[in-house]
Each structure stands twice: as structure tokens, then as C-alpha cells.
Design a protein that fits this description.
Blueprint (H helix, E strand, L loop, with lengths): L5 E4 L2 E5 L6 H18 L3 E5 L8 H16 L3 E5 L3 H9 L8 E3 L2 H11 L1
Parallel strand pairs: 2-3, 3-4, 4-5
Antiparallel strand pairs: 1-2
Pfam family, one: STAS
Organism: Methylophilus luteus
Protein name: STAS domain-containing protein
């Protein structure tokens, strides 16, 4: 089964999505990530979506739900690298990604997480 790697960087977890997301992969990532937050006692999660050209409503909700789950597990989530077309699509779909902090790139995302943890 295909999985997206989750890297540990001190108290943070880094997820770089470099493949086209489909529903099953998104659900597997969500489960893997919440498991790792608990196992590693992570204080922050950085999700890099810079390689994604398109996001559908399911993937948008998955990102939002993952951030909500991380928050319950005492970890903040920052999504980085959002392409303009993805941002436009999310707005057109009416997905506000509530609870999701965004940053332009990984460096800014890490700085935001380190400042808030």
C-alpha cells in the first residue's frame, strides 16, 4: 500500500505530499499522522503541499480535519507551499480550512511552529 513519509524534526513532524492524492491515500495519511503525533509527542505538524497542482473538496476537508485532530492531540498544524490555483479552488469550493495556519514556504512554517510551541 502506498504511504506518504512522515519525517520527525525534533518536536515537529514534516509531511511532504509529492504525489496526486486520492481518497484512500488521504485517509491513510490522516491515520498515520495522528498515530505519529501521539507516538512522537509532536508539538507541531508541517504539511508541504507545494507539489499539488489541484485539490478537491475531499482533500481540502482531509487537511482541515487533520489539523483539527492534531489540535486535539496538542499539536499545531501549518500548511505550506500552497499554489495559487489550489488557493483559488479551495475558496471556490467554500472550504475555509478553519484551524489551519498557512505559510508560504517550509522555512516560514517551521518558524511559525517554533514560535507557537
Amino acid at each position: 500500500m502506498e504511504r506518504i513519509p512522515i519525517l520527525r524534526m525534533g518536536p515537529l513532524l514534516l509531511v511532504t505530499i509529492q504525489v496526486d492524492m486520492h481518497d484512500r491515500l488521504a485517509m491513510t495519511l490522516q491515520e498515520d499522522l495522528t498515530d505519529r503525533i501521539v507516538k512522537d509527542r509532536a508539538k507541531g505538524v508541517l504539511i508541504d503541499i507545494s507539489a499539488l497542482d489541484i485539490v478537491d473538496s475531499f482533500i481540502g476537508r482531509m487537511i482541515s480535519n487533520t489539523a483539527a485532530m492534531a489540535k486535539i492531540l496538542d499539536a499545531k498544524t501549518v500548511v505550506v507551499g500552497m499554489q495559487p490555483a489550489v488557493a483559488i479552488t479551495l475558496v471556490e469550493l467554500g472550504l475555509a480550512l478553519e484551524g489551519v495556519i498557512t505559510a508560504l514556504n517550509v522555512e516560514r512554517g517551521i518558524a511559525m511552529l517554533e514560535h507557537n510551541t
